[in-house]
Amino acid sequence: MKRSHAAFSFIVVAALVVSACSSGDSSNGDPTVPIPTAGTSPTSTTSTSTPSSQPATASTTTSTSSATSDTPTSAPTTTGGPPTTLIRPADLVTDPNDPNNLHTSLPEHQPIIDAYIAAVNAQLITYSRWPLDPTSPELAAAPITEQVLQANNDGMVERTQKNQVLDISGGVTLRPYVVENDDPTRAFVWDCQIDATFWKDKDTGEKAPPDAWPNMGPPGVETGVVAVMVLVDGRWLLDDGGLEPQACE
Question: Is 119 helix (H, G, I), strand (E, B) or coil?
Fold first, then answer.
């Protein structure tokens, strides 16, 4: 495994991630457009029991990572199968012997993985509901930092302007594992997730143009992402992230 990777700011999982904004041009958008708040009665366009993921794009950052030891000293858990019941697995079938299904995670990494999964779930559930609400109960309780909350807010402004909601009915399979935890307050999580989500017009149901990664829909596509997790007051929080092809190598 290579020792360096490039990360785009703010995973969202799903998405980390992962996310909020599309990678297309949003220069004609008004960043001051208000987003409907929790005071508005939302109409759910998709089941909240089957969320999914997309990434927000921003400035590129680079960090150094070292792979988890291949010979852990304590019993590992594997990434085979979705590690959560909140997101139904995508339909894409992969070889159970594929390395992406066999990554190991040490028991001491489990709080990091759990926080990553919770953060992704909260964002995906929120993006699957209309009106898009940056004050949703899920986001309010999610293990994410203020900068990720702001990224979600910015992304929801853009998606609201485009009249788009995330269709999560195809499901997502998360397969996260920690690749660096040398700093006790900072960790890098890689996830070769299987993403079957897509953005659609909330009125017509028409699939959005392919400007929002991966936006493939069912049965899903393997997509590598990286999440930066930070320890704040004893709690692991999602702080940054983006695309990472090496997570699927």
Answer: helix
